[in-house]
Amino acid sequence: MIEEQEARRRILDRICVLPAERVLLREAQSRFVAERLCARLSIPPFDNSAVDGFALGLRDEAGAAAGERFRVVGEQAAGVDRRFRLTAGEALRIFTGAPIPEGSGAVQMQEETDLVAGGEELVLRNSVERGDFIRRRGGDVIEGEVLLEPGRRLGPRQLALIASQGCREVAVARRPRVSVVVTGSELRAPGENLAEGEIFETNGVQLEALCLAAGAVILGVHHAGDDPLRLRRTLEEAAEGCDALLISGGMSVGSHDHVRPVLEAMGLDQVFWGVNLKPGKPFLFGLLGSRAVFGFPGNPVSVFVCFLRFCFPALLRFQGVASEETELPEVSCRLAVDLENRGPRPHWLRGVHDRERGLFRPVGLQASHGAGGLSGSNALLRMPGGSKWAGGSEVRIQLLEGWPL
């Protein structure tokens, strides 16, 4: 049995970034950049007006005072540069985004001006400083500047930045292909009829949703009972074409736990089996050829915790995310209640983070089958074995909010 961080290290050391592929920007949402992106052009690409108003040919280097008059000599709209050139005392009606004419030292908003002499002159209501309301070329992005590094997740803001460079496509890491196998003869798919002693299967649904949240492609969700021959056929079928094979249940040492012996017969290179944590002690990781194999316990909370600790980082690493960036976000807060972990293993408690009050409180049944409490949680707290904390103690928690989990 190994420690959590050692388990994560061994997993991530064996995960290779998948090849890149080019996709259209509209297909790149939530994908991960596969190459360093540098600016092709400066943004803005030319000096332009930040407002609708008047470009001013200043008489004074510093600016213009309230009451100063300017002669209106034309109009410059956005889209076509009419190549105006202003001299001191001249003004040009200008619109947002339009090129700044040569000789202009500032722009004043139209609301701060009064047109006189039949619209041929304007009077400033307030003073103007040189540079007011002019967006300078390269004020946001300079040509050649690094915009995005490999492994950055693409959202609407990043896609807009790429589009500003005139790019229709972007290179992203290929999505990892995942197959899921759920074991257990007592399990029935949601919607089926239950016989006495049977329960509905939840891990297939949960693992598929978690994998999709991590950016993976699901090749299939398979169900295998506890018969070794059927299990092997199912595992061989599921392993075809996948980058990662996820298996829930059958990982312990009971007489109906056949997954490990079957995987060994299939040639599994077992990296480890058993992690010092609760829930999820009998977690397994290995390699079946080039495929990463993740073996989860059968209880749903164990599956959730082990996925976040071990599989989620691996799926992100497949897509080029740096190993040190695969942890969930953490914050400090205080305990709302006294807590004690009498067991020897670290326990990942599920709970609610009250952001306004800065408090954490465990929620629901803190057992490996307690899906009700898990569904109501928004944070996790790792409590070391043999520890006892008083209410009000400061702790670090991992947030589930803000992630598609």
Mean pLDDT: 94
User: Fraction of residues in helices?
Assistant: 10-25%
What form results from the Cα inertia axes? elongated
Give the biggest sheet: 6 strands, mixed
Strand content: 25-35%
Sheet/helix structural class: alpha+beta
Please state the CA-atom Rg, rounded to the nearest Å.
Answer: 31 Å
Report, as a whole number of angstroms, the end-to-end distance. Answer: 28 Å
Strand order of the largest sheet: 8-4-7-6-10-9
What's the total helix number? 7
Q: Which runs of at least 5 residues are low in confidence (pLDDT < 50)?
A: none
Quaternary structure state of the chains depicted: single chain
Helix-strand blueprint:
Layout (H helix, E strand, L loop, with lengths): L3 H10 L6 E5 L12 E2 L9 E2 L3 E4 L6 E2 L4 E8 L13 E5 L11 E4 L3 E4 L4 E4 L3 E2 L4 E2 L10 E3 L7 H8 L5 E5 L3 E7 L3 E2 L10 E2 L2 H11 L3 E8 L3 H12 L4 E5 L10 H7 L3 E5 L10 E5 L2 E6 L3 H19 L11 E6 L3 E3 L5 E8 L4 E4 L8 H5 L3 E5 L3 E3 L4 E6 L6
Parallel strand pairs: 6-7, 15-18, 15-19, 16-17, 19-22, 23-26
Antiparallel strand pairs: 1-14, 2-13, 3-12, 4-7, 4-8, 5-11, 6-10, 9-10, 20-21, 21-22, 23-29, 24-28, 25-26, 25-27, 27-29
